[in-house]
Amino acid sequence: VLITAYRNTNSTGFVIVAINPTGIPLTPAFNLANFPAVASVTPWVTSPDVSLAVQSPVAVTNAAFTYTLPGLSVVTFTGQANNPPKVTPIADQTINPGVTLTVTNMASDPDLPAQTLTFTLLTGPANAALTTLNPTNARVSWRPLISQAASTNQFQVMVADSGTPSLSVTNNFVITVNPVSQPVLYSVASGSQVSLSATGMIGPDYSLFTSTNLTAWQLVYTTNPVAMPVTLTDTNHGDATRFYSLQLGP
């Protein structure tokens, strides 16, 4: 059997031409060493009986296939190889609870022409979300809850292509959430209004609650400070006795 192979430099297409110059059928094994992933090849047979007749695709298993070449024939196998996508690694991070994390996963497909990529969040906290931005980028968003403080969180974003066979890669990174530090209430000023000054970690929401009996609490308002200390003011009071509670969230 005489064999040559050719690759299309503008795509991942290729052909293998096998010539059987004998008068008897031969069944060679074709080993696709150093080829990207190939699912199948399609034979086109020219012999004394047919001229460039397309045949059923032949499955490629473990980068190899066999095919019976008719006597005195030329068989051209056409195929399309597939390379896995490539992703830009993402570094591990440490953040405070309440901080909104946004991580952009960037991917590319080395095949020509480039294939369609699909992003999937395989592993992540329940309140994390993935949004596809464009054909090569997807954003992971997550705002850790107070209940998720002092935790280590594994993220896995899979990028799959539309080739045959479909190939994928996974971007893995870890987000560590710091423990909650107790806020400190260090001054209270009263007059026409009550102002409470507090200091604490940046990230969580600071919610001010008020009560006159330590039983029924009402939310005054919630703020997300970007600097410390933070001042929380109650302008609607007229009771002789009033209690305040500062709560971190969400």
The arrangement of helices and strands along the chain is EEEEEEEEEEEEEEEEEEEEEE
| Helix proportion | under 10%
* Strand coverage percent: over 45%
- Main β sheet profile: 6 strands, antiparallel
Number of strands: 22
- Overall spatial form: rod-shaped
Can you describe this structure?
With 250 residues, the chain is mainly β. The protein is 0% helix and 52% strand. The protein contains no helices and 22 strands. The strands form six sheets. Strands 1, 2, 4, 5, 6 and 8 form a six-stranded antiparallel beta sheet that branches. A four-stranded antiparallel beta sheet has the order 9-11-14-13, with no helix packed on it. Strands 10-16-15-12 form a four-stranded mixed beta sheet, with no helix packed on it. Strand 1 (2-7) and strand 2 form a beta hairpin. It is rod-shaped. The mean pLDDT is 94.
Can you describe this structure in just a few lines?
The protein is mainly beta and about 250 residues long.
Key features?
mainly beta, 6-stranded antiparallel sheet, 4-stranded antiparallel sheet, 22 strands, 52% strand, rod-shaped
Write the layout of secondary structure elements.
Layout: E1 2-7, E2 13-20, E3 29-31, E4 40-46, E5 53-54, E6 58-59, E7 64-66, E8 73-80, E9 86-87, E10 93-95, E11 101-108, E12 117-123, E13 129-134, E14 137-142, E15 151-161, E16 168-177, E17 184-190, E18 194-199, E19 205-211, E20 218-223, E21 230-234, E22 243-249
Parallel strand pairs: 10-16
Antiparallel strand pairs: 1-2, 2-8, 3-7, 4-5, 4-6, 4-8, 9-11, 11-14, 12-15, 13-14, 15-16, 17-18, 18-21, 19-20, 19-22
